[in-house]
Each structure stands twice: as C-alpha cells, then as structure tokens.
Specification:
Helix content: over 70%
Number of domains: 1
Structural class: mainly alpha
Radius of gyration: 25 Å
Largest sheet: none
Low-confidence stretches: none
Mean pLDDT: 82
Distance between the termini: 28 Å
Length: 108
C-alpha cells in the first residue's frame, strides 16, 4: 500500500465543485441582476418590463458563462497541491499510529 502525501489527501468530487459553482452563481447573478436593473431603470427611459427583460437577459448570459468558467477554475485548482494542508483523516491516522506505538513501548 502506497503511503505518499498525494495518496492521502482528500480531493473534492466534480459534483461538489459543480454544486459550489451553482450556489455561488446564484448569489453573484442576483447581485448582477440588481445592479443592472438599478442602472437601467435610472439611466434609461425604458419601461419597467423592458428594464426587467434587459436585466434578465444580461443576468442569464452572465450566469451561464461564469458558471462554466468557475467550474473549470475549481477543477483546475483541485489538482494543484500547493497550499493544501494535511486533512483531518490523515492526521487522525498518524495520531493513532503514534499512540499505538507508544502504548506498545509502555507495555514492554
């Protein structure tokens, strides 16, 4: 059995990455919608319905484009080791092994 740092680290699944991307895009796109709606309603003579449609169209394109870009960015970073710390499961395993060895020494 291999015991390298790379084998022991926990990676995020693609499903987790896409769910994180979607949840972030909902928050960010709502912000985009509110800003766009506010700007268009105050700076143009468009009706409420036209302003709503314009803000909705911009938000829809923004949502899809940035969702894809964020997902790809997230998947790229999940494969980069830099800055990752040992996960709790790995620490726990090493802690238990160390204390098991200590207990053996005390008994003998």
């Amino acid at each position: 059995m291999k015991n390298s740092k790379k084998d022991n680290r926990l990676k995020e699944s693609p499903l987790r990455s896409i769910l994180k991307a979607i949840s972030w895009r909902i928050i960010a796109s709502l912000t985009t919608f509110l800003i766009t709606f506010g700007i268009f309603s105050s700076l143009t003579d468009k009706s409420f319905d036209e302003t709503l449609q314009t803000a909705g169209a911009i938000t829809g394109v923004d949502f899809l484009a940035k969702l894809l870009i964020y997902y790809l960015h997230e998947r790229m970073w999940t494969n980069i080791d830099w800055g990752k710390s040992w996960r709790r499961a790995v620490w726990k395993k090493k802690y238990r092994a160390a204390h098991k060895n200590l207990a053996k020494k005390i008994i003998h």
